[in-house]
Amino acid sequence: xxxxxxxxxxxxxxxxxxxxxxxxxxxxxxxxxxxxxxxxxxxxxxxxxxxxxxxxxxxxxxxxxxxxxxxxxxxxxxxxxxxxxxxxxxxxxxxxxxxxxxxxxxxxxxxxxxxxxxxxxxxxxxxxxxxxxxxxxxxxxxxxxxxxxxxxxxxxxxxxxxxxxxxxxxxxxxxxxxxxxxxxxxxxxxxxxxxxxxxxxxxxxxxxxxxxxxxxxxxxxxxxxxxxxxxxxxxxxxxxxxxxxxxxxxxxxxxxxxxxxxxx
Length: 264
Known about the structure:
CATH class of the largest domain: Alpha Beta
Number of strands: 7
Low-confidence stretches: 9-14, 19-38
CATH topology of the largest domain: Heat Shock Protein 90
Oligomer: single chain
CATH superfamily of the largest domain: Histidine kinase-like ATPase, C-terminal domain
Strand content: 5-15%
Helix content: 25-40%
Radius of gyration: 19 Å
Mean pLDDT: 80
Number of helices: 5
């Protein structure tokens, strides 16, 4: 399938809309810390909170191991077994993110912002990220459709690309309604990898299309207090720009928004 989102709207088709995958197959598919001064500051309340959260996660992980051992000989429904595996994997990922957060506060960086040396196959990373978001989407009656060529590649660390996809898909699911479909497309053309995530939510006000990528800016759909802090989109743009690309959004014809992540 041809990706129709590998250019900004003014460079592409008249409406800049997202190509809907021909198949209705549902495909099973945080933050970069800046360099700080080498002199370590006194620990902040944030550092203490992250440290204590890491300790609490250790307790949860230990109890999860007890639960897994107790259930090892018991037949579990497919959904329950998958959920248990997702909890285990998410706990490990969260532990890594908390370690990265503490490293960032200490002035050390776990993920270099320079591109990785070897090209990465995009398809399995996107599929893993979408897979992580499927339970939350299905709980709200939302489907996730994914399309892209198997030979798409990008020069980026797999964990960073997965975090970008999760942030964009989570954002799209949050602003979708039951019965909607979130559409994910990706492709590599002329040495650039483009990832597009479209929804049919309320869209983004025209005067906020760029501002929404600033730190602590939120796409609040109903005006109620949000549980989110407005860092996910800022993270996506920072990763893209560090790799010679960018991230942007445009409103789709017929309603909704399309977020585009592109890197060299």
